[in-house]
Structures
1.
Amino acid sequence: MKPRRRFMSLSAFLWLLLAAAYFIIPLFATLLISLKSNQTGKCCTAHNYGWVLHNGDFWHTLKISFLLALETIVISLLIFVPTIYWVHLKVPRLRPVIAFLALIPFIVPPIVMVVGLLRTFKGSPAWFYQQPWGFLATAYVILAFPYMFFSLDAGFRSIDVHTLTEASQSLGARWTTTLFRVILPNIRTAALAASFLTLAIVMGEFTIANLSAFHTFPIFIQYVNESQGFPAGAVTLMSFGITWFAMLSLLLVGRKRGQSGGVIAGAK
Amino acid sequence: MSGRRRLSLAWIGTLPFFAYTIAFLFVPAGAVLVGAFQNNQNHATLSNIRLLFNHPYIDAYRTSIEISFTTALIGGIAGLFIAYAAIREGTPKFLRSGLTTFSGVAANFGGIPLAFAFIATLGPLGVLTVFLKSHLGYDLNAHGFSLFSKLGVELAYMYFQLPLMILVISPAIDGLKKEWREAAANLGARPWQFWRYVGLPVLMPSILGAMILLFGNAFAAYATAYSLTSGSVNIVPILIGDYYSGNVLDNPHLAQAMAFGMFAVLALMMVIYIPLQRRAARWAK
């Protein structure tokens, strides 16, 4: 056997250096811009962060996006947990069908989806069509489909649904008890992972919100980009921080489960 | 008999999922499909689709496809080399886990914040632009570079294309068995011969499949280009967006036709992707 190489090869080093430069420089530049003073254009002041934190629209839109994310997560889990449980337990034949349907959002991108949603629900009641909690949330649940399905499906596959259900029922548990006290605790990490991913998607989603004219957090960031030079750097970094938080939480949850690798989503 | 009845009852458990999918995915998708072939009086027509093949719509499709193709190809190749650099023997383990973690985050860092990060870097007053000008005497803008152009959009798209490639291709590189390389070496193959006759042929379906994913990823993107160029780059999603943000609402069916066209391109990509995926899976395990 050949002995293990002691050092990185030069080409590997150069490729990784190039990648590091490409990935880090824009973030560093954003940080520098965010520290510049709006009056003098000189470094360094935390004033831009203060501007953002004292902006009522910042908190208002952040709250809307966060509540939207929570609503999307709750609705998605309510749809997917019982469905996937049921499919694994009773109708495994339907699993490929559901997997296929859950993948469709990949070939129907948000820009296409919003065109269809706007046409379909144009005349619908105002409580649905003119409220983010109605129109936007239903669209975001669809965006979450692939991530919800694959995370939860993997979670259910890693546990023995049949044995757990039978054991629980032979001990006299009702369906609700089985679902909430036996199944849910076992797929908690999968549900958490899917939830963090959904959080990251909803907090960054711009396309659908912009075309249907709702004022969410990404719309606020775009407004700052257009109107305020240096505070835009601050709000950009804060938004990046939210993505970091969601994705790192996801990775930590996933690591506990013994999984590796990342997940791809996001609002481009 | 009883088994059959159980199945029909078991179906009902998945009803909420199917109901939701039909109401909020199929019906809207159908609305795009039907709307693309209707005029303002809701009569059947091919005129919208025919319009797509005229200026400026056909140019938008061309630009969209060019941007997607370029970033998929270059992002795919560079992503492959970066992923391999992190995986290959000799590279410290922490670099690989660091790259994977960062890619997981960066693949999700699209849209408005990404656009600003690039304006802060390479915009007319960007940190890198100013640095190059004042310290190295190189004026990017005088040399014809503009961030608010197709090239600028491509440069920014790489920020989510590279991480996607790294995430998707790493498992395939991991799947190259050490034994294959040792066997090749024992038979007297040089490293380039291993790659030419074993490594690349095995990886190729995965690489092409990943590039198609990258293509779709860039093709569907709206927010980054919109924010970076203030909507001035002529790509299909931005044209569609223009119809809804006020400028031209005389014919919503044209927007639906453009959306239908995007769907057609992406569906075609999927048709290419699925057999590649099947071929790539042959070498797994």
Note: Chain B touches chain A through 96 residues (CB under 8 Å).
2.
Amino acid sequence: MHNIYTGKRVRLRPFSSSEEYTNIDDKLMEVPSEYWGPHWRPLGERTEEYAPAGVIDPASYSAYAIERLDTGQLIGVEEHGSIRPGVLWTWLGTHFLEQHQRQGLGTEAKQLMLCGLFESFPLETVYAITVANHRPALRGLERSGFRYVGEKRGMFIADGQPVDEIYYVITREEWEQLPVRQYVTRG
Amino acid sequence: MDANETKIEKGFAEGRHVVLRPVLEADLADLARLMAENPQESLPWTLQRLKKKFESEKEPGLWGKTDRVFVAVRTHGGVVGYLTERQSKQAGIFWGFTHVADGLDDRGELGRDLISAYLAYKQKWHNPLRLSFDILGCEDEKAAWLQAGGFALELKCERMVMHLGRPESICTYAWYSDELKQRLASRDKE
């Protein structure tokens, strides 16, 4: 099973060390997300998470390093949820350091993750969830080939106001039509 | 049955036919059977797996940080169902799933009573903004219990799980508090 996927602008690969994983996570968490709010997980928890298999464990949770091809920098984390027998879906999520956002890199990172998921597992659908006011994420999901499914109203509260969670999906058939499949390099 | 008809004691819910309470060790064999029967459970629950979870230091007594399991017991005794509750880090937002034993003559009555008792319990003690349950698209009986309790279909996600050899959807049925309804209406007006 491949765990390195390279596109035109970014590469997904396993984290090379616990330090690499925790360092980028520190950077991603140190400033609260404008949309999701503050989030912090203690170092011990993340070190423990890395120890068994380098945070690639399809049965529970997987996280990949996103590397920029032009500079070789580690710029974010691509993650997906558990994959279980009898369950035909999982979720994916993308986190970028602020200075690398809004450059279209997330679109390719998501599409590379979709290649990894649909090529390796008997999944029918991959879902992505964001909040209604996160317009960059909504646009990014649509550019990546996801389509709107619906929403859960008031699942999140920000500034005292209810915010809806928005659900996006891509099916195996829809992923098969994406151009990324023609140029992705595996391994 | 409306929430006013539901009697509540000791912080947990007592409906007309069922009582909801945390899981005791003596309930585990019945609960393992019910969990294995529930098409929403993605793990093949066995008594051994459940005992280990029950004894685990991380999630003691099936009343852990993420999941809280209630068993539904007939008022005159006997475990007939369960409800697993999950809670957002933000106050007042809860979701979960539930099951009542297949094949019982009064399954519909028990299911409606379970939902009604749970809603009354949450309203009395936890000031919920919203509650929701996920069910499979083919679970028409559960959909009817939820609709009878004031829940409405909010989201349907296709091709989520295998059930009896076929891909099935997962449907979310949600209940909004009056406060949330007002806040949503006010937000949507802007």
Note: Confidence is low (pLDDT under 50) at residues 7-11 of chain B.
